[in-house]
Amino acid sequence: MSMPAPAHGAAVAHAPESFWSRYVFSTDHKVIGLQYMFTGMAMALIGGFMAYVFRMQLAFPGQSVPLYGLVTAREYNALITNHGSIMIFWVSMPVLIAGLGNFLIPLMIGCDDMVFPRLNRLSYQIFFVSVVIILISLVVPGGGFGGAWTAYPPLSASAHYNHTPWGAPLWLLAVALEFVAFLLGGINFTVTVMNARAPGMTAMRIPIVVWMIVIASLVFMGSVGPLIAGAVMLFLDQTVGTQFFDPKAGGDPLLWQHLFWFFGHPEVYVVLLPATGVVAEVLTVFARKKLFAYKTILGTAIATGIISFFVWAHHQFVAGIDPRMAHLFTITTLLISIPVAEMLFAFIATLYGGSIEFATPMLWALAFIAEFLIGGVTGIFLGANATDIYLHDTYFVVAHFHYTFFPIAIIGTFAAITYWFPKMFGRRMSETLGKIHFWGTVIPFNLIFIPLFLTGVAGQHRRIYSYENFPQLSTPWLNHLAVIATVALIVMLAFQVVFLVNFFWSMRHGEEVGANPWNANTLEWAAPSPPPHGNFVTMPAVYRGPYEYGVPDRDLDYWPQHVPNQEELPRA
Amino acid sequence: MSHAADVRAHVPIATGRSATGIPTARLAVWWVLASEIVIFGGLIGSYVMLRLHHPHWAEEASHTNTVAGAFNTFVLLTSSLAAVLAHQAAEARNGPRAARFLGLTILGGLVFLMVKSFEWSNEIAHGFTIFRDVFWSYYYVTCGLHGLHVIVGMVIMGIVAADARRGRNLHRVELIGIYWHFVDAVWIFLFPLFYIAK
Ligand code: HEM
Question: Max CA-CA distance within chain B?
């Protein structure tokens, strides 16, 4: 197959566009990526605020929460449900997949946009509608849905049980629309990476983060279908009065659990993979060393994606499933930890012998490895059905999955933002503020969730409004732990102000940078910062893999993908 | 390219590339179908699992109209043949002929929907509503979702045919054909599951 010659002058001359056509209805992948990112960050603030309110209720039950007021039991349920849903569907997904995917894919594979720019815009618009609906669902009569982000029937299926005649269907509608948005986006990403690569960008030269986003999109596409079908059934149960999930009429509530987790478990890998991709990019750049075992990392990602379809029932060990089946799922769950562990080993090996620079993005990437490791190791206890029967639905589980999700959604995102900020806005963020924010986030994070491991092992169940109703579970020691976790959360939230100040101040006043401030190899750094509409001044061609750092016998310790072999770079 | 409208109408270089050698639009259609397969897969899979546990569903299933179902299978398969002929005409760059065959396909979809509405109104009149039993809930939801795909397919096909008549966007004739075969294939699963197995 012949590759088209690199075209010249791809960047379209800037036209005097209106604010609306440039920032709101734009089809430019970078604008859409930033739209997703900013929406996701705003939702993170809402989700974080919810965590603050319900943590205050747990630490100081029955007292009025500053900035909120008294928390009723019903509100508590709505808060945790929407906290979980928002953090997964409206923070992790839009920021890590849609935001980064949109911003990075065309830049990193060397083309000017997605293959279907208008479909891309439609994807964001549908997503935006879902955001509006989930926010409205919080204030309708009866309040927001409170049946947990897993929405198990029969509780979720009938307003008779859940008392949220509006909140429950609106929640479901919002989730379903969000799925549609990401399906459209995922198809666009996959086709773009398959077809729109620059000449010379062979499969094994694609940067890992792009691979990860594509694999994640495919896993999403393969797993979300049954849940879309399930959502249609649940919606009809809620609104029309069918009885798909009502045992009394011959329906089956367990069916929902299977449909939900058949999606829900792959979903955690859907958000994990892009975050590991970000970490891979940042590690090599700041260790100035070639990524260790590119193909192995790619293999582990594919293996993880495949095995993730066979672990779902480990969420249902106590749901009365056949014990023989439980053993099978224990085995697959222990199996999936192998490729993930291998990936982390490859990352650690990348660091070995590198000349490490502890810039802010690097700190986040290193913290990701350390914290995610804790999440992964505690997961082994939950994957083994014998221990899970004791630990199921305790705070041990809550602490475990926050040790995975927080590194993914928060730490991974900060690694990405601090690393690509110069490309996005053409300026640098402050390193000092960045480091203050880093330590102010990571230390309190551990202080929030280490105590929750302990309360979980002591028997505190999750999704409980107030332990005062359970005297054995509100001992002074456990109450102390709850207060520690809550105070740490408040400290952590306060430190986010440092980030916001740094972000918005640097956007306008940060030190201006050239195209390639980190001396990195991948193609996005060949485009101007910020890249114009059309991305590249000259459409690039690719001559080598993305991780040629510290190549012996070269003056420079990096070797950008688009620089032809013979040509020597002028010293930077 | 100096004014705003041009910038917006600008087709990216990306869209014209084909690193795999497969046309971008066709790739996209395949991925759309892949994601649809799992949606129907989830629905059909859970129906089958539940049916294995509910022997009395066979009794309920005996009230569906097998003859109408068989006729509809025939209609859909024939309409798919017309879609293939439309593709052939489009390959030969004969737009009007392709449009006529697409018209036949749309007609097939129309007949399919008419038969369907006749069936449903009959069943509802005899008390076999969506609420009667979970079997009927599955029947209406699965066939309804399929019917929705038929309608969407007909609408898009109408647009493609109108274009094709004027010789425009002929490559889309093939794409909508692929989609229509998929709709057809789904029905091939639904027919035995809801109409034959009793
Ligand atoms: C900002 C720091 C966070 C804190 C302090 C926090 C705290 C909590 C707590 C204490 C619960 C359990 C509530 C209960 O069971 O009564 C919870 C639930 C949950 N959180 Fe977080 N969380 C935080 C961030 C996140 C992030 C970043 C994610 C995911 C990306 C996340 C996802 C979830 C999910 C899925 C649930 C389960 C909700 C349910 O039970 O339905 N959280 N969170």
Answer: 70
Asked, for residue B155, whether it belongs to a domain, the answer is yes
> Residue ranges of chain A with pLDDT lower than 50?
1-14, 568-572
Residue B2 lies in a domain: no
Identify whether A6 is part of a domain: no
Residue A572: inside a domain: no
B163 lies in which domain range?
Answer: 24-196
Kindly determine whether residue B20 and residue A243, on different chains, have CB atoms separated by under 8 Å. Answer: no
- Report CA B155 to chain centroid distance, whole Å: 11
Q: Where are the beta strands (DSSP E) in A13-131?
A: none
The alpha-carbon gap from B119 to the nearest alpha carbon of chain A, in Å, equals 20
According to DSSP, residue A537 is labeled S
The boundaries of the domain holding residue A537 are 26-565
pLDDT at A199: 95
Across the A/B interface, how many CB contacts are shorter than 8 Å? 156
Number of domains chain A is built from: 1
A83 lines ligand 1 (CB under 6 A): yes
ipTM confidence? 0.91
Measure the CA–CA gap between A208 and A100, rounded to whole angstroms.
13
Contact of A431 with A478, CB cutoff 8 Å:
no
Q: Which amino acid is at A8?
A: H
Number of domains in chain B: 1
Q: Assign A508 to helix, strand or coil.
A: helix
Determine the 3-state secondary structure of A17 from DSSP. Answer: coil
Both structure tokens of A570: 């002028």
Helix A476-509 and helix A431-457, axial crossing angle in degrees, nearest 10: 160
CA atoms within 13 A on the CB side of A169: 15
Sort B53 into a burial class: Cβ within 10 Å, 0-12 / 13-18 / 19+.
Answer: exposed
- pTM beyond 0.90: the answer is yes
